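Collaborator request, handled under Task 6.
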Amino acid sequence: MEIRDNRIDAGKAFDWGRTSEEYARFRDIYPDIFYRKIVDRGLCVKGQRVLDLGTGTGVLPRNMYQYGAEWIGTDISEEQIRQAEILADAGNMKIDFKAVPTEQLDFPKESFDVITACQCFWYFDHEKVMPKLSGMLKPDGKLLILYMAWLPFEDQIAGASEELVLKYSPNWSGAREIRHPIWIPDVALEYFTLTEHEEYDLMVPFSRATWHGRMRACRGVGPSLSPEELEKWDAEHTELLNRIAPEEFEVLHYAALAVLEKVK
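Structure tokens returned to the collaborator:
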């Protein structure tokens, strides 16, 4: 499904379905601490029913399945959901996946203990979504927003790779990230109270091949470049990594989370 949003990449079209297989292979990269910080807060654990918005290939529910929560994952892309189902089935995980935009969700009131949004919160129409999410949460329900990004101004490999993405997608709005708390729109605070946030650094291991795949699966490359542009980007990025990166390395990232509690 092709998406155009003037808030993102200056309105340049992108389609996650074009890179779903690579997304499944190369973007399941959150370290254990990323999940531990969720569990330590008593979220997404046994006895809870959790809705994961923008689930993509089901990275969050699949990696947190071991903690016993009942998961439903939704995403706007049918191809992403198809990959999520394949991976969940391969792991014998009973996760319900649905291809539906967040703005069109229609679960009954007070259906969930927790709603998660990992790496996707900025895509939503918040005026439509916030009252909907509040209604779907139980009285003590939590909205958990999660994010992780490389730090291009501090990590040489990440910075060089990012500059090559910008060569081909100069309006890519995912670039030039620095540490900051997750942005919460004003409308969200009409329905939720921000109870805590945390930002922390972490190192993520890659090989040349897996980092190339990770970069190819970012919005500014695989989902948005033409086949001809993508072929050129592939060649240039491969040459770049052969020149500046060892075969195995780590990339400096920061992660952030925000916990919002439903207003009673």
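The cover message to the collaborator said: "Residues 5 and 11 are 5 Å apart (CA to CA). The chain has a mean pLDDT of 97. Please let us know whether this matches your experimental observations."
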